[in-house]
Amino acid sequence: MPLMERTDEHWMNVALEAAREAAAIGEVPVGACIVSAEGTLLAAASNRTITDSDPTAHAEVLAIRAAGIALSNYRLIGTTLYTTVEPCVMCAGAIVNARVARLVYGAADPRFGAVDTHFNLCSSPLLNHRLTITPNILADHSRNLMQNFFRSRRS
What's the angle, vertex CA 10, arms to CA 135 and CA 122, rounded to 5? Predict the structure, then answer.
């Protein structure tokens, strides 16, 4: 598919594949990817908190780190970050600090979501950067992946 024809659903499927990879190794199934302003994939990552023994190794943070390296810049100007679940406070803060232009996420997170559910960090007038937010892209897929993962861990 040509770069300009790739949709939010296309990129969310990239993030969902990363989330499935996390689930396969026993990590909470969250995946993220970052796309440049030109529509090229800069980075994709999945949760690795357990694997790396690192509480900051959330998919979004790992994708931001990799995209910064790919661009040789700590500012991710013009980029779009896709993530399967609404980011937490730490990840929302990293997204704002990285100057991501747009955030697209799948399922809302009623407990820890810091973008729309609680805090509204990515659109707060108190911060010096705000971004465009598009929620609920393939939300059912993301939600089902999480629910199935935790259901299987409980049984």
Answer: 30
